[in-house]
Amino acid sequence: MSKPAEVQSFRPILQPRRTELNAWILAGLVAAAGIALPKTGVSIWVGRGLGAFFLLSAVSISLGNWIDRRSALQLRADGVAFQNGLRNVDFAWSQVNKVQVFPSRWGKKIFVVGEKARFAFSSLTEVSLQGKAQRSGFENGEEILGIILRQSGLLDHKHQNNDNYYYQRE
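Structure (tokenized):
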């Protein structure tokens, strides 16, 4: 792992939009079925419940895709910046107070915390679904984590908390 060049930019692996399209189609079909089916007491509540579930699922998937497509992480000689459409954070290396790492079977979730703001990103995750490899997160997540820890001076300040660990100044 090397010291960051003038600016290193990273983006997460983008997911295909097919899942989002399928979610909206399914939400539309459930809504149409709810309108077309006879209105009885039970079917109204089941239809509304399923419709709300599929609508919220489609909205959630769309929001996740929108955020991923706007996510970017930059490592500079003077600090780190992160933006994703909802959050725009820029820290000098000295302002990074804590880095939390939450490992799971779906990769690592990494939180970079400053005095007044924080941001999170995921390291590379690879899962196999129906024989096809699915990848998500930042492909260089481990390298990004290492650079952030070194440049912020937190590398030698590791603390363990069960399966999770964090780096924080004493």
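The helical segments are 18-36, 41-70, 141-152. The two ends are 25 Å apart (CA to CA).
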